[in-house]
Amino acid sequence: MAQSKGAEETSEELFARADAALYAAKDAGRNRIVVAGQHAPVRARRLFPLTAAKQEPVVQPSPMPVPDTRALRILLVDDDPGLLMLLRTTFEIVDINVEEARSAAEAQARLAANRPDVIVLDVAMPVVDGLAYCRALKADPETSGLPIVILSGSDHSEDEAMAAGAEAFLRKPFSPLDLLAIVEQLAGGLFEGPFRLMTEERPEEQLLLYAHDLRRLLELERGQRYLLKTAYKETIGAFAGALEAKDFGTGAHSKRVVRYARELTSALEPSLLEDPSLEDGFLLHDVGKIGIPDSILQKPGPLTREERRLMRTHTLLGAQLLADVPLLQGEGLSVIRSHHERWDGSGYPDLRGGDEIPLGGRIFAVADSLDAMTSDRPYRAAYPWETAVAEIHIQSGRQFDPDVVDAFRSVEPKLQRIHGELAAA
Ligand SMILES: [Fe+2]
User: Fold this and answer.
1) Is the pLDDT assigned to residue 21 strictly greater than 50?
2) pLDDT tens digits, residue range 163-209?
3) Calpha distance 158→123 (Å, rounded)
4) 63, 337, 343, 408: least buried by Cβ within 10 Å?
């Protein structure tokens, strides 16, 4: 964004100023507005509350109004370009504005243009060292309220840093995440010490510590993803169990059909298992029964025509109920809708036949029927395993997809073992 100085400014000068602003913006990073000749970054997001008590009144030189909700801003003063780059990368990951200075003089110019919330100051610098600059800042009423973190490669500097008035001390090499924690606390007025954060020996190189930090972040992120996935699985498992209690009074049916269907899928089309929604669809296949009256679900005798019609709506009800759940989009939702379709087209709800029925639904139909036949019902005892197997063979090309029945033949002994394992569950 260029500011016109007046009519006498030539177009070349304007272009040069615009270029300078562009490069300054690129150098400053994303999400910033840079004013040509002033280098005043402004952020729209607020990350941390700013401490009114610690802020000295100061006149903002920027013509732009600084909103109350601006992001945290720090000034890094160090003459080591490698460390500056590492710190800048760390802080900008969390959207903190970073101003850099390679000397006390440059820092003073930055301060005059843009007041930071925290100053991070290296001790070893040419001309004016960090401790002397810290004392000068603390002696000046304009800057005495600014929190300062001193960085040093020497333990001796700790006492001197405290005597110079710094709020915190970090010995190099240090973890950028540790510095980040201190800066956030100082900016929020929450830092209560200890004055020196790191007391243990840290023999690693700065880059190695940075790599450790990245690994810590990745592990945290991975752990959170695992927790989220586990919580989701447990939630839908509990949901399926609650539904089944309403239907059959036990959670074993869900466990068995999921295992059967997974084995059949693995034998017929393993790539289908890459769709994470598939197994959830197996588990929640009868979720629509939540809308079916208990008097129908638990009726000991055969259903009337009207009751059967109502019962059949559980496929549509389930698909509608979960239509907006992002994690179920895909084959999982298809299983819920289509698990009562028949290969010959006489099933429900859509009267689809053959390959028109989603493969997950065709697979699940075999798993569901197998378990229905081999389980006790209020109105009949379970059929022997062999009877159920024979019935599935008979229904090949009629109720069931012949390819799924072939896959069933190949894994049937395994399914019988699963049946035995989960019979007492
Ligand atoms: Fe069903």
Assistant:
1) no
2) 899 988 888 877 777 788 888 888 775 545 444 444 455 555 666 66
3) 10
4) 63
Alpha helix (H) ranges present in 313-401? 314-321, 331-338, 359-373, 385-394
Task: Give backbone dihedrals phi and psi of 296, rounded to 5 degrees, phi first.
Answer: -90, -45
Mean pLDDT of 12-28: 43
CA 417 / ligand 1 centre spacing (Å): 24
Would you tell me how many other CB atoms lie within 10 Å of the CB of residue 367?
25
Could you count the other beta carbons within 10 Å of the beta carbon of residue 70?
A: 17
C-alpha 313 – ligand 1 centre gap (Å): 9
**How many Å lie between the centroid of ligand 1 and the Cα of residue 393?**
21
Ligand 1 midpoint to CA 259 (Å) = 16
**What's the pTM?**
0.52
Å from CA of 340 to ligand 1 middle: 6
What are the distances in angstroms from CA 342 to CA 67, 146, 266, 302, 358? 64, 74, 21, 21, 11
Measured N-to-C along each axis, helices 331-338 and 359-373 cross at an angle, to the nearest 10 degrees, of 50
Nearest to 55 by CA among 133, 122, 121, 141: 141
